[in-house]
Design goal:
Elements lengths: L2 H8 L27 H7 L3 H10 L1 H8 L1 E2 L13 H7 L4 E4 L7 H18 L3 E7 H13 L4 H8 L10 H16 L6 E6 L5 H14 L4 H7 L9 H9 L3 H20 L5 H20 L7 H26 L3 E4 L2 H4 L13 H9 L3 E16 L5 E6 L7 H5 L7 E4 L5 H7 L3 E2 L15 E2 L1 H4 L2 E8 L7
Parallel strand pairs: 2-5, 2-6, 3-4, 3-5, 6-11
Antiparallel strand pairs: 1-8, 6-7, 8-11, 9-10
Length: about 475
């Protein structure tokens, strides 16, 4: 295994599950003929009254009675159809919005629409993304004060597997956030990068500036501990070079960054808030070096690394929420925001599970599913390709969700009718497409009621608009 490529792939790819259903990977997958549902089969063998009663007991009919239609995925225009979603959110302080692919247009635009609703109607004030903490600092400075050029920031920060975020949909979302902040300078919307796959130069500069101002006696020691770590190249080159270092050296670097965190924690300055931020920035550096110190050539090492990664993503989101008081919209893959892991062999415990432990009912998990459509992903040749998958196969969760009476809809699984509960508690295959396609965990079997609080289902999606 090539260790750098293994990490760059694994950061955004769900690994380790047996492929239960292999969707066709092609530029154009012809749609399959409509499948006959179990309720339709039952109706054919009984009288009309019995058939009507059976239909009402079907999971799709029961979900249809509980579901609320989604008028559009376009972030512009009215938001009245999202009021039922607001009731589902309730008092949650963090709302995890998933995605069944990393690069489909409608998943990204509906997140923009939901963010806009939660900001305008429910007081949410932060958007967290599966991106490095240092990326979050740069984008937050742009959103708050207009610092830097958005195109340049996105080009420089969204590299490697993070390149899926360098798209027109997220550019529009960030532009909306900036416009909102210009209109509301005293009550802005913030940006949080919660991941640990890179630690940009900004983090080292922030820690050094804090030490120079608040604890100058620590500055020489921190400089020595961080020697050779501050990036001087682009993110993708830095990570590739870092992972080419011998394992012993990577582990020694992780030990050094851990000592830097301890040093800062033991010597607080007079400004408690400034100290807390400095410790968090140093922690983000240590999160990266720890992630890169696992043995990516060992399956157990990969599982340990993924456990570390999901834990730190949850910790970073929870830290921001508790430090700032902001209510947060959290964007990530379904398999990260879920309450239970989709792929236990490689992801022993995921971000959503950690957040539920830390926040209880203050965390809401919203899975986003789709029946058919297209997405961008890496092919096995390493290139970026547009893939299309046909209609959901019988027996999959999406096959039933496609038969709910609304085309696109949201449904609170916690309050599902009795006729749907058994179906929701039974394992069904779901689409779970990561950064590389086909993958080995594209179709795990999960229990929807255990994985998510709410499902937002779209019948069809199209590939996102990647920026050059």
């Amino acid at each position: 295994m090539n260790t750098p490529k293994a990490l760059l792939t694994a950061l955004l790819v769900p690994l380790g599950a047996t492929l239960a259903v292999a969707p066709a990977a092609s530029a154009t997958t012809p749609p399959a003929p409509p499948a006959t549902s179990a309720s339709a089969v039952a109706a054919a063998s009984v009288g009309p009254e019995e058939a009507a009663a059976a239909a009402l007991r079907s999971p799709e009919a029961a979900l249809g009675r509980a579901a609320h239609p989604l008028r559009t995925t376009d972030p512009r225009g009215g938001l009245a159809d999202l009021r039922p979603f607001g009731r589902m959110v309730g008092d949650a302080r963090v709302v995890g919005l998933g995605e069944a692919t990393h690069s489909s247009h409608e998943f990204l635009t509906v997140k923009h629409r939901v963010l806009r609703y939660l900001v305008e109607e429910k007081g949410f004030r932060a958007f967290a993304l599966e991106a490095p903490w240092s990326t979050g600092l740069r984008l937050d400075a742009y959103l708050l004060r207009g610092e830097g050029d958005l195109k340049r920031i996105m080009d420089e920060e969204f590299q490697g597997t993070y390149r899926w975020w360098n798209n027109a949909e997220y550019r529009d979302l960030l532009r909306w956030m900036r416009a909102y902040n210009v209109e509301h300078p005293d009550d802005p919307v913030r940006f949080v990068g919660d991941d640990g796959g890179f630690a940009g130069a900004e983090l080292y500069d922030e820690v050094s500036a804090y030490a120079a101002a608040a604890r100058p006696e620590l500055a020489p020691r921190l400089t020595e501990l961080y020697r050779g770590l501050r990036p001087a190249t682009d993110a993708e080159t830095y990570v590739d070079d870092y992972l080419s270092k011998p394992m012993a050296e990577r582990r020694e670097l992780a030990e050094r960054t851990g000592r830097a965190v301890d040093l800062l924690k033991q010597r607080p300055g007079t400004d408690a808030d400034a100290h807390a931020w400095a410790v968090q920035h140093a922690t983000a550096i240590h999160q990266m070096t720890t992630l890169f110190a696992f043995d990516w050539d060992d399956p157990q090492g990969v599982a340990d690394a993924m456990l570390h990664r999901d834990r730190i993503m949850a910790e970073n989101v929870a830290w921001w929420q508790q430090q700032t008081g902001d209510k947060i919209v959290l964007a990530a893959h379904n398999s990260h925001i879920a309450l239970r892991t989709y792929v236990p062999g490689t992801y022993p415990k995921v971000q959503g599970d950690f957040l539920r432990e830390q926040l209880g009912g203050g965390y809401l998990s919203v899975g986003l599913t789709f029946g058919r459509g297209s997405f961008n992903a890496f092919g096995h040749d390493g290139g970026v390709h547009r893939f299309t998958v046909g209609p959901a196969e019988p027996g999959t969760a999406e096959h039933t969700l496609d038969r709910v009476r609304h085309r696109d809809f949201m449904v609170d699984l916690r309050n599902a009718p009795a006729a749907a509960r058994a179906w929701l508690a039974t394992p069904h295959t779901v689409k779970n497409i990561g950064a590389t396609y086909p993958g080995i965990a594209d179709a795990p079997r999960i229990r929807l009621a255990q994985a998510h609080d709410v499902v937002l289902h779209l019948q069809q999606v199209e590939a996102a608009r990647l920026l050059p």
